[in-house]
Every structure is written in structure tokens, then in C-alpha cells.
Amino acid sequence: MIAFLSKRLGIGLVTLLVASAVVFFVLEILPGDPALLMLGMNATPEALASMREQMGLNDPVLVRYFSWIGGMLVGDFGRSFTYSSPVIDLIAERVVVSLPLAIISLILSTAIAIPVGIFAAARRGRMGDTVSMGVAQVGVAIPNFWFALLLVYVFAVWLRLLPSGGFPGWGAGVWPGLKALILPAIALALPQAAILARVTRSAMLEVLGEDYIRTARAKGMPRRYVLWRHALRNAMIPVLTIMGLQFAFLLAGTIIIENVFYLPGLGRLVFQAITQRDLIVVEGVIMLLVASVVVVNLVVDILYAVVDPRLRVSA
Amino acid sequence: MSLLEIENLRLEIGGTPILRDIDLSIAEGEVMGLVGESGSGKSMTALTIMRLLPDAARTSGRVTFDGIDILAAPEAAMNRLRGDDIGMVFQEPMTALNPVKTIGEQVAEGIRWHAGANRADAEQTARQILDRVGLPEAKFPLSRFPHELSGGQRQRVVIAIACALKPKLLIADEPTTALDVVLQKQILELLRDLVDEQKMGLLLISHDLAVVADMADRITIMRHGEVMEEGETARTLSAQVHPYTRQLALASMHVPDRKKHAPSADDAARPLLSVENVVRHYPGRRTSLFSRPEPFRAVDGVSFSIRASQSVALVGRSGCGKSTLARMILALDRPTQGAIRLNGAEVSAMSETELKPHRRDIQVVFQDPYGSFNPRHKVERLVAEPLHLLEKQPGPAERREMVAAALHEVGLQPRDMDKYPHEFSGGQRQRISIARAIITRPRLVVADEPVSALDVSIRAQVLDLFAELNGKLGVAYLFITHDLTVARAITDDVMVMHEGRIVESGKTIDVLDNPQSEAAKALVAAAPDLHRALQKRLAEQG
């Protein structure tokens, strides 16, 4: 197990290093001069030159790359040009919104998808299967911003139960913060749940055709027991894979929903940074996302081994 | 009254009739052999008794077990019967156990469910039954997972699950078909002892007449979903009143008529294939962080040679290294040490490019006629596959001609080349793979268990085909098999392999009639033999 973990960790670190190089050098060759952007089109050449010197833009590329990496290792992600505050502070402000949102959405979508997927697989070809998979199909097809607007209309405008947008900050207490995240989490979870339910269904169907399911039935185990106790765990591998991918997406791919609900999340931060050529912020956020994907994959790998004993030996 | 009574059982699945008017009965402590070829409805009969049929199945007639009307019983009543009063053992031990649960959990589960025992008691009972089936605690604690066991050991676990609660009826559906002969004998003896100890009725389903003749008190022979003949085993199989019984018995003892291809003096002198001191290591399991793991010697210093048009059998138990050796001969794997020469050229040391012209001289036929074809390719493309090995590539018309000729040689129609593999039966598919093997006119064909997946009558035909091609084309064979009847039927010489070494070799008849090494003796003793089994039964009855 230790050999397995250290190998996966090593792979994760290499991934991070490669990603950092790609992120840095791709942004390096993009057109647009950050100093010019900061000072505006009318800046004098002298002011521009001293700004470039101050921002360290005149140093050789490799020197800047390594000082960037070295800074990140000690938690210094640099300073944003546009917000003129440390990138790490900007990220920290947003993570407290994006991370809980992603976790709530993932819990919601899993809680909906797995029972629905199992239910549909157990009733393959019958009414329940057709209806639940039809609903899932619609769930995949509906654009989530439209669904979000619908939620706002029903719960905020009509029923007046939940806020229509904005985020009060955790300083105002846990409940107001959570309340602000409920509708966006539902809007995000729906399409994810629809996809996950379909994956769960097909994984379950495959497992239900296996010989050991017949063995369990021949032992006298009722259908429902076999479904939950024998089939589900075997069907978890593809489900875990998709859940890992979805979590990574939920952390940063939520810009549309953040805009609909006016939430200060990571998606909005990176979007604004890109439009303003605030490269140091873009780089920082991307590295954070790469790191979170690496961690999520590591967790998924460990869960694989927990679920399936055959994956514990080979490493 | 019988323990199990089946009367006029009919079964349809999705409107297709599967079983017609089946009658069958089993008394307490009786072994009933159910014999038939694939598709005859044997397994469906078993699944009907368990009521584990697919959802689309419709049944009529009567199935009475211990006074209970099985076909009309509610599902909850069936759940009480299954695993308690009726146990079932399946054909494929490799997939019959849940890979994510320990063997202890899987055996104890049924005990807890039926007997209402607590975990500790259930585990104790599970321990006892696992000891009984030959899996002692020292080597097989309850915490073992299925993937840590071999096929034979897994089948013992499945038997333990089925017999844990001392069922009144045990159904064993081809319980040994996936195992080698020595394991087969052990498993059959275990079943026999359990039946005697617990006074169980046993429904033993098999396609192998010899196995059934050895085990069963009475026999039921099925074909196309109907019972052909039923009766006391020895009498039914020796009298062979029913023509189908006779046909089955003849097919299972079939020996093809072999016309020897006269080798030229040149061919006879020079070996076609020579294997010299071949060793193949696989990295072993690491036991310590610091020492290098001891390599596993899958093939351990093997030498032999095959002459043109010679037919040689390589026999041995599963895991003895015969398939590893075959892969090296086919140049799909390289020896760790030693050399393999084909026509004098050392193929084991060649690069892939250098190998290409030699590959057409050596072709292969695999065991599974279902898995060895791409289902989306037509027969023409499948059979023509090895043609890229020829120096001069044939044009489309010439290619079709060659495929047609190859299909004709294996007894298929040239027009079959425009069909897909799923349009053919298992035996026909094996003919297609033989056509693919001979299209480049190879000098040697390696056949890995080429008939063990086939029914007896089809197997007889395919063996005839192998014999005919040997005579007509002068192609040499290396048959890899654990089935001694195949070796006896079709080969001149035999080599017995055991733990990576060839422990005995010689003329097939001499070795099989008078084995010298322990490994060969064990194989011969375990091989089911219809003649011997019938003689024993008749002698017992006086």
C-alpha cells in the first residue's frame, strides 16, 4: 500500500511540474504586454520601462519561471496587477465559496444519481427504467443556466424561500452562507446527476450479468439484497472515475452558474483575470486547479483499491 | 416418492420453445446424469429447478421438489429453498465468485441468511465446510479473496457455498469442464463423497459421457430440448438402444482415420522445428524490499524437435507451462535462454522484420472459436489475414480465390466468405480458424486445445479434418491439450510437461498405455474413459 501511494504521489508531482511549465510558457507567448495593460495605452515609454523593470518582466524567461515556482512552494503566488493584492489572498477569498459549492453539488448529484441508476438497472426495459432514464436524458440536455433561472423564479421570486443570488460571506454565519449556495448547487448537480445516473445504470447492468450474481441468487439471496450487497460495489469503479472528473469540473467550470447567482467564485476570478491579462492570477488559479485534480485522482485511486481487492496487490 | 419430480416441463423464452415435455426424477441420495450437446436445454432445465430463468421465460408442466410446487411457489419461498435445500455449482469457477468479497463472507453469507446464525457461528460453520472441501485454514483463511485462489480452489469454494447447509439436492452444471483432468477427478470425487455423506440427490450436468458414466446411477440424454432416453447408466450406455445415444457414444470415442503423408527422405532427416534448452522466466513475487525476487521458471530447460508432417501432442495440467512454450514457438514471446529453430533458422533471435517471412510457415488455431474472431469482419477478411506474410501480395481476385480454396479444404462453401462469424456454429467457426491457419500453406500448425470447447459430435468432425489435412498437405501439428483422448486420436508422439519441464516423451500409444513418470501416471489415471467406467459399473452390478 505504501509503495502504491508513493508511486501515485510521485506521478502527481511530475504532473504538477509539467503543468506548471506548460501554463507558464503558453501564457508567455500570448500577445499582450501586462505593463502596457496596467498603465493604459497613453503611458510614456519611460513609465512603461520602469514598470516592466519593477514587475521583473525584463528578466530572462527561465529565471522568471523558477522564481514563480519557488514562490508557489512557499505560498507566494505573486501579486495581481489589477487587484494589487497578493494572488493567494484573491484565491483564498474565492475558494471558500467554490469549494463548498463543489462539495455540496457532488453530494447532491451522488445522492440522486446512484439510487436512480440502481433502480433503473434493476428494472431494465420496464416502465421505471424508461421514465428515469428519460428524465436523465432531459437533465443532460437542459442548459444549466436556464435551469438555474427556473430555480430562481420558483424558490426566490415565487416562494421567497431562498436568496436569488449573491454571497453574504461566512462571517454572517453558516446558515446564510449555505442558503446562498443551495440553488446554485442544485443547478450544478442536476446535469451531473443525470450523467452519473446513466453511468451507474450501465455499470450495474454489466455487473448484473456476471456469473457471481447468479451464484449469490443461487444462495437464496433476494434480488434487492444482491443488488445492493453484491452488485453495487463491483459497479463502483466507473462511477468513481466519473465522480472524480465531475468534482474537478465543479471546482472551476462553474462560471456560468456563478454569473447567474452573482457568486464570487474561482470561475469568475479566472474569467476576469483573463480578460484583463492579469496573467499571474490566471497562472495561480490554473496551478491550484491542476493540484486539486491531482489530489482528486489520488483519492479516486485509493478508493479503487478500497473497493476492489484485486487492485491492492499490483502497484 | 422422488425428491425431485419433473413432469411435462415446457419452457419458452420470448416465444422460442426451449424445452419440450421434459420428464425427470431424482431420488434421495441418487446421482442423475444429464447429458446433451450445447443448446440441448440441460442448463435451462437446471435453472428452471432453481427458478433462476430470465425474465422473458414462460414455463408449464410440473416441477415438484420435496412436495413443493416449484413453478407456482412465490419468490420468497424460492429464496428459502435456494442455497438451503437446493444448492447449485456452476461451470466457470473463475467468474462464479464475487471478486470484492472474501471467501469467508461468501460462504458465511448463505448460512447467516438461512440459519439466522450470528456472524461468529456462521463463520465457524463456513470454516468447517471449507476444511471439508479441501481448503484448510492454514493456507486458506476466511479472509482470502477469490483472485488469490486457482480455478480448482475456487470451484471448491463454490461447492462449499452450495453444500454448506447440507442441501437435499445439489445441481452441478458442468462443474469440471473448465478444469484440467487431474483437478476434474478431485472435484468429482469430492462431489461423490459429499453425496454419500449427506445423502444428497445430485443432478450432474455434463457433455462428457465418460464423466457421467463414472458418476451417475441413472442418466438422462437430451437433445434439442427433448429427452431422448432415460435409464440406468450402465445399461443405457452399453445397450445404446436409442440411435442418438449410440451416436453420442461413438462420437466421444471417435478416432479419425489417418492416412500417413509419406515424408521425403530430406524432410525426415532434418527437423522442421527444434527447441533447444529453452527457458522462460517471469519476474517472481517480491518477498522482501531488499532482495531480488526469485524468478518464476515457467518453462525450465525444454528440448525437442518436430519433423515435417509429424503430429505431436504436448500434454500437461493447467499451469505446467505448455501455453508459455507455445507462445515462444509462435514467436509471440522470447525465451530467456535457449534457441528455437524453424527450418534451421534461429527464429527466437530474430527481429520482427526478419521474422516475417518465417511466420507464414507456422500458424495457430486457438481454443475458443467464439473469442478469436473480430465479429465485425467478414470471413473473407478473417481468413485472408495471414496473407500479408506472403512475399508477393495477391490481388483482390486472387485473394478471394485463395480464401475460397482454404474454405473448401476445411469443408465450408466458398460463398461463406461473405458472411460474418456470428452466422456460424461453434464447429464451423473452428473450421474457419483452421482455414485461416492453413491459407499460407504453413509447415507447422500449433493448436491450443482446439476441440475442448466443442461438442462431442462436432469435435469428432474437427478431429477428422485435422487428420485429413495432415495427410493431404503434410502439415505438422503441435497439439497442446490436457485431454488425452485427443492426444490418442490424432498424434504420433506425445510429450508430458510438468512444472516447466518435459518429464516424459515417446510414441503416444506407448506413453499413454504405459506411463512411467508420476506426472504422466496422474494424467492417465485421471482421464475419464467411457469404456473403463462402463466396465467398472457392469462389474459392480455382476
From TrEMBL, chain A:
Membrane-related topology note: Multi-pass membrane protein
Source taxon at top rank: Bacteria
Transmembrane segments: 9-30, 99-122, 134-158, 178-197, 231-257, 285-307
Coiled coil: none
Broad class of where this protein is predominantly found: membrane
Location in or out of the cell: Cell membrane
SUPFAM superfamilies linked: MetI-like (SSF161098)
Protein name, UniProt field: ABC transporter permease
Native species: Neoaquamicrobium microcysteis
Lineage of source species: Bacteria, Pseudomonadati, Pseudomonadota, Alphaproteobacteria, Hyphomicrobiales
From TrEMBL, chain B:
Any coiled-coil regions, as ranges: none
A Pfam entry, by short name: ABC_tran
Lineage top rank: taxon: Bacteria
Keyword Nuclease found: no
Localization per Swiss-Prot or TrEMBL: Cell inner membrane
GO-annotated cellular components: plasma membrane
Keyword terms: ATP-binding, Nucleotide-binding, Transport
GO molecular function, one term: ATP binding
One GO-annotated biological process of the protein: transmembrane transport
Membrane topology: Peripheral membrane protein
SUPFAM superfamilies tied to this protein: P-loop containing nucleoside triphosphate hydrolases
Domain ABC transporter, chain residue ranges per copy: 4-249, 273-524
Family, as annotated: Belongs to the ABC transporter superfamily.
Name of the protein this chain belongs to: ABC transporter ATP-binding protein
UniProt lineage: Bacteria, Pseudomonadati, Pseudomonadota, Alphaproteobacteria, Hyphomicrobiales
